[in-house]
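User: I'm curious what two different proteins look like when written out as structure tokens. Can you demonstrate?

Assistant: Sure. I'll show them one after the other, since each token string lines up with its own sequence. Here's the first protein:
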Amino acid sequence: MATDSPAGKHILIVEDNEVERGWLATVLRREGYVVTTAVDGGEGLAYLRADRPDLVLLDMIQPGQDGWAFLTGRRREPRLSAVPVILVTRLGEAAPGGPRR
């Protein structure tokens, strides 16, 4: 799924939560970014290989191929490892009503 976008304007969101993925995509599109979304690390890697976005927003905890697997796969391919990744995750966040670790 190749996307034409101005330099620095294409963001890939890898997030399994549909609400959070949609919210991030909506906010970024309103700011003029071209956004591609993926529901897990495997789909995210496929889009990263095909589209070569300028930035990845990555959730670490996902069913299927998680964020760690995405980062490992990205690191194995030199042309992909240059794409910056920002972690957007609840990793380490306390469960509702539970104690922080």
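Here's a second, unrelated protein for contrast:
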Amino acid sequence: MSTYQSPKSKQKCFRQYLEKSGAIDSLTSALVNLYEESNKPHESTEYIKQHLGNSRNPPIEKQQQLLKENEMLDKENERLKQKVDEMTKTIETLKKNLNHLRAHSRKARDEKS
């Protein structure tokens, strides 16, 4: 004897399957990419086919752009680290000078007394 499943129940099961398998995320990503594309292709279905499943692996152009951006950020990070080091050294020098001046000032006050 077979069990009867309502169409709504079948739809719910199918939707859960699509969500668990990642199909909805992949489709959404491909459609969002198409929406954000400045030069819309004539064949939207071909575009979707090419970009389907690429949500985890972006197109080569995007990867290259991300690599360039990463390289630029690495250089900026290194430059900022050097600047922090220089400023830390300056602060240490200023602290030493301040302590020296305070000691000198105390010594001069003590001599006056």
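A detail about the second structure: The chain has two domains: 1-57, 60-113.
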